[in-house]
Each structure stands twice: as C-alpha cells, then as structure tokens.
Amino acid sequence: MDTNDPFRGNALGTIHEPVTAGSLSQRVAKILSQKIRGNVLPVGTRLPSENAMAQHFEVSRTVIREAIASLKAEGLVETRQGSGGFVRKPLAMAGLRVDALTQESAQSLLDLVEVRRGVEAETAALAAARRSAKGLAEIKRALSRIEKAVAAGRDGVDEDVQFHLSIAEATGNPQWVKLVGLFSEQLRAAVKVTRANEARRAEFAQQVRAEHEQIVAAIAARDADGARAAAGAHMEQAARRVTAADRDFWHSEGGEFARKLATAAPKAGAKKPRA
C-alpha cells in the first residue's frame, strides 16, 4: 500500500449533508485545510488530481479548483506545472501566509468569474443566432482593438470590456446590454485583475487570445451551441488561471486590484459565511 496515498483511510473526509452550490468550494477547502493543519496530509503530500477529488467529494472540477485557489491564497498548497498540487513546507507557508483579505479576494474574483460564465455563455449563443453583419463586424473590430492595445503596451482592459459588450449588443436584446452595463464596474475590475495575471505569463496571454478567437469564430458561423461552449470554456479557463496565480502575482499590483475588488464587494446577504 502506498503510505503517501491521501485517500488512505478516507483521509480527505467526505461531504454528507446537502449543501447549496455556492457553499461547496468552501466546504471542500475547509476539510482539506483541517487535514493539512492536523498533519493528516503531511507537508510534501501530492494532492489527488482534480478528477479524483471531484469524484471523492462528489462535486464538479470547478468546485475543486475554487477550493484549491482558497488553499493557495492561504499558503497551504502550491501547484507545480505538470505535477499537480502539493502541501507546502512549513517555512514556505510562513513566508507566504497571507491575510484574510487576500484569501477573500481570490474567492471574490472566482465568484465574479462564475457569474460571468452564465452571462457570457448566453449572450454569445444569442449573438450567434441573431447577429447581423454589422454586429459581427463590430465584434471583430472590438477583438482587433484588444490586440492593438496590448501591442501598444496598454493593459487592454477597456477594450476587453468593450469586446464582451459588443457581443451583448449583437443579441439585439437591449436588456442584455443593460445587464452587462449594470455589471460593467465589476466586470472592468475583474478583467483588470485577470488581465494583470495573464500578462505575467506568455502562455496565459496566448490562451486568452485563442479563446476570444474561438468565440468570434462560432458567432461568425452562427453556431449558437459552439458559441455558448466557447464562452463558457473561456470563463472556465479564466478561473483556472486565477487558481494558477503565484505568490508574486498576489504581492503585485494585480493582487492589490484583487484586494480592492474584495473590499468593494457587498457584504450583506451575498457574503454570508459558508460553513
């Protein structure tokens, strides 16, 4: 028997009681945190894969990613490219342990990405089904403006927000435009943080460009299902990139943007403890 197997003796614990979707990630994070702090999952332990943990806890992989993001922000876990997640060494944890606001900022950002996933997927699908030639041309122009802004050394935040707004406009339904407009402040803040993270790694920037192009291609082809899938995948990958953010990012200007986003989030009702 592998003595380093985290599943040995059901070491990860389980979730028995029914809970709402919004509370699952924090429940999983709490269970893992307790196991790590109690040395049930010792320093250096390699965590199971996302698929394995999703099956174990009977939740989606997105929930697992959000839970791991919380543990990373707390300094309990690190991820290594191509190897997965590991419990941190005590010294590294002490050096990386961050305040509660930074941990909350990671979750606030993931919360926004979750909301965007629903809105972006539906507007992209409707835009594909209804877009006019003029609407498609504006979407393509908006995409081109992002690349021009980045090439000019700007962050491309305004252009990125306008790109998503142009997709909402292409639905032909002014209510979608209003919804995106009402959400524009949070959207701009979230985009500012995610783009700051993505700009730190060339592969992230390339991924975002390819994801945007896939959305536009589906809309151009009037492929509603493809557009919905491409927009949803774009948000899924945005969440993944947030969870992959490293220590340097959370101590950079991007991390500061994220903390401001967390403090600006409404506390009443929406941010009740998820115990």
Topology, pairings included?
Elements: H1 21-37, H2 50-57, H3 61-74, E1 77-80, E2 84-87, H4 90-96, H5 100-130, H6 133-151, H7 157-170, H8 174-182, H9 184-198, H10 202-220, H11 224-243, H12 247-250, H13 253-264
Antiparallel strand pairs: 1-2
Helix pairs in contact: 1-3, 2-3, 3-5, 3-11, 5-7, 5-9, 5-10, 5-11, 5-13, 6-7, 6-10, 7-8, 7-9, 9-13, 10-11
Question: How would you characterize the overall build of this protein?
Answer:
It contains 13 helices and two strands; from the N terminus they run αααββαααααααααα. It is mostly helical. A hairpin with a 3-residue loop joins β1 and β2 (84-87). α5 packs parallel to α7 (157-170) and α7 packs antiparallel against α8 (174-182). The two termini are 34 Å apart. Residues 1-5, 16-22, 90-102 and 267-275 have low confidence and may be disordered.
What is the overall shape?
A: elongated
Instruction: State the low-pLDDT regions, or none.
Output: 1-5, 16-22, 90-102, 267-275
**Rounded average pLDDT:** 75
* Helix count, DSSP H or I runs of 4 or more residues: 13
In this structure, how is the largest beta sheet organized? Answer: 2 strands, antiparallel
How many strands?
2
What is the terminal-to-terminal distance?
34 Å
What string gives the helices and strands in order? HHHEEHHHHHHHHHH
Strand content: under 5%
The value of Rg in angstroms is 20 Å
